[in-house]
Amino acid sequence: MEKPQKMPKVAKVKNKAPAEIQITAEQLLREAKERDLEIVPPPPKQKISDPEELADYQHRKRKAFEDNIRKNRTVISNWIKYAQWEESQKAVDRARSIYERALDVDHRNITIWLKYTELEMRNRQVNHARNLWDRAVTILPRANQFWYKYTYMEEMLGNIAGARQVFERWMEWEPEEQAWLTYIKFEMRYKEIGRARDIYNKFVMVHPDVPNWIRYAKFEERQGFISGARKVYERAVEFFGEDIIDERLYIAFAKFEEAQREHDRARVVYKYALDHLPKDKTADIYKAYTIHEKKYGDRTGIEDVIVSKRKYQYEEEVKNNPHNYDSWFDLLRLVEEEGNTEIIRETFERAIANIPPSKDKEMWRRYIYLWINYALYEELEMEDEERTRQIYRMCLT
Fold first, then answer.
1. How far apart are the C-alpha atoms of 323 and 18, rounded to whole Å?
2. What are the residue boundaries of the Pre-mRNA-splicing factor Syf1-like N-terminal HAT-repeats domain, all occurrences included (predicted)?
3. Full-prediction pTM beyond 0.85?
4. CATH assignment of 208-320, given 3.40.50.1370, 1.10.357.10, 1.10.1040.50, 1.25.40.10?
5. Which of 129, 157, 186, 340 has a beta carbon 3.0–4.6 Å from 120's, enabling a disulfide?
């Protein structure tokens, strides 16, 4: 009969007081970390002395790389390390084969294409690199890195015509602005001004932004084609029309004319902009126009700018408060001084359309004076009795 097993006795703790030196979890972690940082002696260097040892070493390394790839084919860094190692072993064909296998896994990976082409260029395989770039830009035409490196390679090889063909293929995809500017700089490096101008013509149609038109005009100006620069500005004004009016274009146009000492032309540009731009977008135009007149204008020109600016201010006041009849009177006085009958009548009609919202006698009195001034203008200035009677009848009704 088996004897029952005895349970071990629980040791009695004689001293239950806390230890004088407490060890924290932080200290334990710090000590473990310090042990990790201890300098481990590097493994001894392996010297390969004969072809058999080299073949054995290469076999083991290739097996390790293949095992890593087999575990996870989608980790691209494993493929790249494998190919770079093969290149270090002077096995370019093997490296090329590895990159092709990697492209089968992920043919839209930009890094693989770049590393592959760098391999070919390092080993002076120009035709291989060229074929790779062609494949890359066909599969990923929106990857600008490929186009930049492709054109750079052709230019460094001295194949200017080939680089130009690559640029033309690239521009067919209507890439971002920087790509066009790079093409223009390429042509300018070889003094191909006519070709650069043709590129600018296409560029402003693909990216029709005001800064690009200004850049085009300044290009013509730098080359000494003053009439060409003026035509570019005129084309830009015509292109945008009155629907999209940007003050930057008109300021650049006017300053161009100012630089050519064509001050009358500059004034025409400023006045056209002030007449056609929305009133809330003319602050910079007024500022530039005033500076121009102070530098090159006479007293009449400066007064015209001041009057125009005051007119703008009164327009803003009546826009914000249509029942501010004092501002209407000030505006009408300036408009009458200009002498444009159609604008004067249109301003009077706008003013009298704002009927006082309350029964305040003073406000009504100022409003009636607008009608009276309108009638007096037709009677005394235009000598149109019939229109004067019509205005009085409208006022009384």
1. 89
2. 64-209
3. no
4. 1.25.40.10
5. 129
